[in-house]
Amino acid sequence: MNWKQLKIASLDEITAWAETQPWCRAMTDCAQDAEWHSEGDVWTHTKMVCEQLTQLEEWPELSAHDRTVLVFTALFHDAAKPLTSRVDPDTGRITSPNHAVKGEHLVRGVLRDLGCDLETREQIARLVRYHGRPAFLLERTEPTHEVVRLSWLVENRLLYLFALADTRGRSTESMTRPEENLNYWKLLSEESACYDKQYSFAYAHARFLFFRQREPNLHYVPHEEFSCQVTVMVGLPGSGKDTWLSRNRSDLPVVALDDIRGELNVDPTDNQGQVVQLARERCREHLRAGTSFAFNATNTMKQTRGRWIDLCADYNARIELIYVEPLFKDLLKQNKSRQNPVPEQVIKKLAAKCELPTWAEGHTLILSNGE
Fold first, then answer.
1. Which of 142, 210, 246, 337 is buried deepest, with most CB atoms within 10 A?
2. Which of 70, 293, 354, 34 is closest to 171 using CA atoms?
3. Cβ distance 253 to 286 under 8 Å?
C-alpha cells in the first residue's frame, strides 16, 4: 500500500498492513517493563493505543486529516523501542532511552518511502518525537514555557489527545496520576492560548530569542530592527536548493559551500576546514556590510546549521530557514543530473539522519516540496 491508499484505509486495514512490515514485526518481539506495560510487547500496546484513539470523546469531531495524523502517531510512537530497549543488569527493569528521538527518524523514513506529503509527514514525525512530554509537565521548572515551546513544534491539542490514548492503551491499573498531568497540560495550554494554535509572541524576534535564551522571559518584547536578512538553505544533495533560490530569491548574493569547494578544488570527501573558513569570512563580509544574502549548504544536521545561525544572529540578522525536499525518487534523479553527483548511498545515509529545521531556529520557516 502507498500513502494515498493508507490515509483512507480503516484502522483494521492499517494495522493489517503494518503487521507485514519489518519495523512492526520487531515491535512484536520487543518486551516492555511490566510496571508500566503489563499488557506485554510493544505491538500489543500499540494496537491498544490505536483502539483508545477511536474511543476518545473528541474523536467524532476530528477532521479526517487529524485522525490520520493521530493514528500514524500511535502506530510509530514506540516503533524505535526494539532499537533502544535494554535490561538493567542490576534491577532487571527494561528501559528504552531516546526511543522517541529515534522513532522520529524511523517514521520519517517510512512515510517518505510511502509518498506521504511533506507537511503531514513532519506533523506525525514531531508528534512521535514529543509524544511523552505531557506526562512529565509537572517536572519542568517552568511548565508554561514547556507548553509554549511545544506549541511551535507540534499542535498541543493533538499531543494531548494522543497522550490520553497512550496512557489508556495499557493494562497497568495505577495510571490515574499521569492522566491528571495530561489534563493539566490541556488546562495550561488553554490558559496560555496555545492549545489549538501556536503561542502568540509580540514579534518573530521575541520568539527567536525565547528559544535561544538559557533563561527565557516569555513576556520580553525586544526591539525588532535587523541589520539584514540571511536565507539559510537546508536540504539533501539534489533537492533543488539552487533552483529554489533562483525562483524565489534571485536578487540575493549567495555563499555556497559547493561553489567554494570548486574554487579551492576541494573534494566533498576531503577535509573541509579551508572551505568552511572561507565561507565564514564571506558571510561576515555581507553581515558587516548589512547586505542580505543566502547561505547555501546541505545544513541537514541541527548542530551544524546552528553554528551558521549563531554567526548571523551575532550580527543581528533576521534568519529565514528554507527546507527543500521533493519526492525522493525525483531527488535522486536530480542528483544524477548534477555535474558532480553525490553517491546514492551517501544521500540515503544523510536522509536517515536528517534533522529538519523548526520554528525554534529562525524567524521564518518554509518547508518546500521543490515546486
1. 210
2. 34
3. yes
**Domain regions of the chain by residue span:** 3-191, 229-368
**Residues in the chain with pLDDT values less than 50:** none
Q: Does domain 3-191 have CATH number 1.10.287?
A: no
Sequence-distant (≥ 6) Cβ neighbours of residue 325 within 8 angstroms? 118, 235, 236, 239, 331, 367, 368, 369, 370
Buried b (16+ CB within 10 A) or exposed e, 82-104: bbbbeeeeeeeebebeebbebbb
Question: CA-to-CA distance for 361 and 136, rounded, in angstroms?
Answer: 24
CA distance 307 to 234: 14
117: closest CA among 2, 214, 29, 26? 2
Determine the pLDDT at residue 321: 98
Cβ–Cβ under 8 Å, residues 292 and 315:
no
Dig out the grid coordinates for 313 from the structure: 544572529
Give the CATH number of domain 229-368.
3.40.50.300
Contact between 50 and 11 (Cβ < 8 Å) = yes
Q: Give residue 61's pLDDT.
A: 97
Rg of the chain's alpha carbons, rounded to an integer? 22
- Kindly write down the DSSP assignment for every residue of 10-36, as one continuous string: -HHHHHHHHTTSHHHHHHHT----TTT
155/341 Cα distance (integer angstroms): 38
Do 95 and 34 touch, CB atoms closer than 8 A? no
Burial class (CB in 10 A: 0-12, 13-18, 19+), 349: exposed
> Helix (H, G, I), strand (E, B), or coil: what is residue 229?
strand
What residue type is assigned to position 226 of the chain? Answer: F
β-strand 229-234 against 293-296: which pairing, if any? Answer: parallel
The number of beta carbons lying within 10 Å of the beta carbon of residue 66 is: 17
Asked whether this chain's domains 3-191 and 229-368 adopt the same fold, the reply is no
Residue type, 290: G
